[in-house]
Amino acid sequence: MNDDVRKYIYGTLVVFVFGLLVWISFIYVNACGFTLTCNRGAFVVERTPIPTLIPATLPAMQITTSEVAVPDQCSVAAVDLIGEWVAAGSSETDVFQFVDINGHNCESTFEEVKLLFIEGNLWYSGSLSCVSCHSVDVAVSPAQLDLSTYAGILAGSRRADAESSGTDVLGSGNWESSLLYEFIAATRADVPGHTEAIADLVIFAGRPLPPAVLTATPTP
User: Fold this and answer.
1) Taking a C-beta distance cutoff of 8 angstroms, is the pair 134, 148 a contact?
2) CA dist 93 to 9, 27, 33, 141, Å?
3) What mean pLDDT, rounded, does the chain reach?
4) Model pTM?
């Protein structure tokens, strides 16, 4: 009886070991094939196709304006922005150029100049807009001056009525000698809204012009 038990035990162990060897062999052959080097089991190396360099015979690369970072807006004194518009001819639609306080070449239009006259709380904290006093009704407007429209600004001050022209407030293109510059830049204790110095107000306005396109010199 004991001999039969031993046979069963030994037989089970032999079958187990044989089965384990067969399973390991199956996995090895499946992964490595019938070879001892097991090349099939090595990691695949990703290689970049050749060539990857740009030939030196190609045209020289150019640095375009889109590749140069520029700020979104320019910093300029509000009085100077009006002055540059006046010096450029005081056009309602044409673009005029100026150099901001950081030395950037910039451009703007009358639409941004107009905002200086119609926006409140701009020239100093709590300030009224210019058009709150100098409006289209020249009969009641101080100095009979209308700053609410392009036509009103060009019509000037001391007007007899809405259809007539008065004194040129833009100095015929000479900004610093104009009546408007004198009125804005000077501190006037007797005039509402001008009891504080406002000539040094710096604002964000205009758009910077892209730098000139740079072309790299081809290598001989």
Assistant:
1) yes
2) 105, 81, 81, 26
3) 78
4) 0.62
